[in-house]
Amino acid sequence: MSVAKTAILPDAAARLIEELGPEIVLTGAATAPYCRDWHGDVQSDAIAVLRPRSTAEVQACVRAAAALGLGIVPQGGGTGLVLGAVPDRPAEQVVVSLERMTRIRLLDAENYSAVVEAGAVLEQFKDAVAAAGLFFPLSLGAQGSCRIGGNVSTNAGGVNVLRFGMTRELVLGLEVVLPDGQVFNGLSQLRKDNRGVDLKQLFIGGEGLYGIITAVSLKLLPAPDQVATALVALARLPDAIALYRRARHACCDLMSAFEFMPPIAMTLAQEAMPDLAMPMEATHPAYALIEISGSGLVDIDDLMQRFLESAFESGLALDGVIAQNQAQAKNLWAIREGMNIGQAQRGRHLRTDISVPLSRLADFVAEAEAAILQDQPGSTCVSYGHVGDGNVHLNVLPDPHLAPDEIDAQIHAAKKIVNNVLDRYAGSISAEHGIGRLKKPDFEARLLPVHRHLLTTLKKALDPAMTMNPGCLFDMY
Amino acid sequence: MSVAKTAILPDAAARLIEELGPEIVLTGAATAPYCRDWHGDVQSDAIAVLRPRSTAEVQACVRAAAALGLGIVPQGGGTGLVLGAVPDRPAEQVVVSLERMTRIRLLDAENYSAVVEAGAVLEQFKDAVAAAGLFFPLSLGAQGSCRIGGNVSTNAGGVNVLRFGMTRELVLGLEVVLPDGQVFNGLSQLRKDNRGVDLKQLFIGGEGLYGIITAVSLKLLPAPDQVATALVALARLPDAIALYRRARHACCDLMSAFEFMPPIAMTLAQEAMPDLAMPMEATHPAYALIEISGSGLVDIDDLMQRFLESAFESGLALDGVIAQNQAQAKNLWAIREGMNIGQAQRGRHLRTDISVPLSRLADFVAEAEAAILQDQPGSTCVSYGHVGDGNVHLNVLPDPHLAPDEIDAQIHAAKKIVNNVLDRYAGSISAEHGIGRLKKPDFEARLLPVHRHLLTTLKKALDPAMTMNPGCLFDMY
After folding, report:
1. What is the DSSP string of A115-181?
2. Is residue B314 within 8 angstroms of chain A, CB to CB?
3. Which one of B197, B251, B299 makes the best mutation probe of the A interface by having the most chain A beta carbons within 10 Å?
4. For tag attachment on chain B, is the N or C end more exposed, with fewer CB atoms within 10 Å?
5. Please, are residues A127 and A102 in contact by the beta-carbon 8 Å criterion?
């Protein structure tokens, strides 16, 4: 994607500077880093980037942009994977970056809650929470860069969804600047508050369509002072799902992650991190990375030990390694991370983010992989993910010897094949990444008329001037 | 509340029968049971009660009522406590009861999910799920009568919210008949599905303002094959909160209930159930009823035992009883139930459903109780609830020797006092019961202009003819 910039308002940038001050408005080359995507596939542009430092300044930015008839693309850490925060009409859009609003306004350990501004980096917030003896469970590969407001706007998932839910389930309250510049003040810190329609739900996962989240009130939990991590080798994906069921029962609500990986995960991780120690000597057809965690009187190590014993007894586990210390646990997770980097190093490829009912996951993967390999025998399928949630990243690496345009054609074809199979399984084309601009065509192609009607009705009602994140999620006409 | 019925459309009932058939339409005396509230405080009336047997018949009912310009009051089991499902304009409203749509459409144990029609009784659904070896965690006093659609429309809470969340967190998908008679088909069974704006959130806790929920897709969990229940005696409410904190850490995510009760709970329970065995000989200033549950390899009995030992060591527990079998556990819970019946037997009284931040709960209760007793020394305060969620039912029983109109005046005064204190604590007037028609004045008095603006905008956009549950939650003019 690359778009020419011919401003409809030639002096829009100047007028924004005049209105908001040069402290807030970036223009020209300085906007470039705010106009590209995380993977570096897309470099777009914008009239300006606005960087407010307070909720009042966000209000001023929204009012100034709206007065000029400009679209606003709200932006957090820019780590989204679906172009939700990348402008697509550079001549008509400004980016509003929340990166300067990073303050923890309140951390009430006695209430297990915190109020944090939208621009706070997830990892920094988690560290501050940990320093207070508590725990915020959202865990993503991008947590060193992503920002809380973006996590909430995209209802981010991650590796701990299994136990703690998506971001939606961690939000107690929101402060939002609406498209008309008013502030929705819903920063409740109540764990239970059932006063009818829960307005904040509109903005969670709303991809910035109805306003800009400026601050968030979040649930915190007791810190898990015990964590046990294990890698289990298995004969095939259905066995991993069978093992998940056993673990779900055996460890009840203490299992915090259950990740499935194919054997190529090891190869990819080693390509990315040549020094990475491999935990098992032999290669196996499938792996599960399991984390159990807890605090207090429950003996987590013992639980993992006994669970693994039962996994061997059941015949499901072919081999198994329990991390003996934090370094070993980190090493096991590094395989999961390295596999992603390894895929990127192999060049352009298809990345998907799919969910199907758990009861159909193994059949879906088998069918989709077979269909792809029949069509493009030189491709490599890399299917991995949060199996317990029915969430699989079925990625396809085209034959690296192909010409660049052939690779693009294969990626395109593979996506079509996967989505066709997916539709028969009543699955989702976006289990956790959202729709943004990247998945809009696939989303719209599957949008039921009544859903489209409701989305259009909401957008017209809540943002009649179409100021907020135009071009994201769906086109109204 | 009692309202005269003078139909604006004298032949509305006849026209509904003509349109929908006598199989579906109840009129006259037969409507009475559908027009009263759970406590028996209110007997209203309606033009007719419509009892559809399928989603298509719900569509026909909505279209027929809308064509006549009638308001629709959707109704589940009628166990709500805020008049959300009781008509308030009998001459202009029909009740649409979902009681004939009770089918479990699908139970996919391998996916830990089920699809059930809105009229299914919660307890019957839970039993069916248990027969399949799984567990649906929503637990309410009314579960023998309340219906799933009502639970979702009101985002019901209950005793297990602590661990499993409000109803919202248990919903995977919805089927809803919209105010124009169209069907929103969102019966997804995916555990993770992040395709942008999550439309179903509008209807969860929406109190029927935007449509009638006809079917629900729900999360299921592994059955907790081990449950441990204990009653702990304490010196005061702050000690109960301190004990909760200890339990939250010691038992991490395995604690499924932590209920606080004052000493009068024992008296009230005995008044209601004279044969109830009292678990402790002495009376104590405060009690906590604690439940820990789990499955598989975790030893729940041992965990409870060790937790209680640590509670004694900490000096917080004055006495403690662990149920040795199911009958004893049932007996402990019967105190909690009996306390409610006992309050009802004492005659008309103030019932509240409040939440404040947990860090301020003890102060709030102390301040509110003191303010009430200063104003009305003859009253009895009964404060109990789900402390872990910051949710307290601060009820006030007026002096029974007062005349009925004096009692009503005291209830009214006590509510005002409680709400005044509550406002200073940034609390909620409805932690779990919703707003309905009963709490509408108190809700509207606290409704921020921006919230009112958003609610009005949504209602106008989604139900321009104001067909769905008019008079509930807030008045637009």
Report:
1. EEETTSBHHHHHHHHHHTTEE-----TTTTT-BHHHHHHTT---TTHHHH--GGGGEEEEEEE-TTS
2. no
3. B197
4. C
5. no
pLDDT at site A3:
45
Residues of A in contact with B431 (CB under 8 A): 190, 192-194
Q: Provide the ipTM.
A: 0.96
- Residues B358/A111, Cβ–Cβ less than 8 Å: yes
Contact B251 A296 (CB under 8 A): yes
Retrieve residue B443's tokens.
Answer: 């809700």
Domains of chain B: residue spans and CATH? 12-97 (3.30.43.10), 104-222 (3.30.465.10), 226-344 (3.30.70.2190), 354-424 (3.30.70.2740)
Q: For an interface test with B, which of A81, A253, A303, A359 has the most B Cβ atoms less than 10 Å from its Cβ? A: A253
Average pLDDT, chain B: 95
Give start and end residues of each alpha helix (H) in A346-394. 361-375
Length of chain A: 477
pLDDT digit string, tens, across residues B237-249:
999 999 999 999 9
Cα–Cα dist A169/A78, whole Å: 22
Which residues of chain A does B186 touch, with a Cβ-Cβ cutoff of 8 Å? 451
| Average pLDDT rounded to a whole number, residues B75-85 | 97
Residues 6+ apart with CB under 8 A from A470: A71, A89, A92, A93
Q: Given the structure tokens 């329990």, which residue do they identify?
A: A322
Among A151, A206, A203, A154, residue whose Cα is nearest residue A176:
A203
Alpha helices in B120-276 (DSSP H): 122-131, 148-153, 161-164, 237-250, 264-272
Cβ proximity of B431 and B414 under 8 Å: no
In degrees, rounded to 5, the angle at the alpha carbon of residue A58 between the alpha carbons of residues A55 and A62 is 145
Query: DSSP letters along A44-110, please?
Result: ---SEEE--SSHHHHHHHHHHHHHTT-EEEEESSS--SSSTTS-S-TTTEEEEE-TT---EEEEEGG
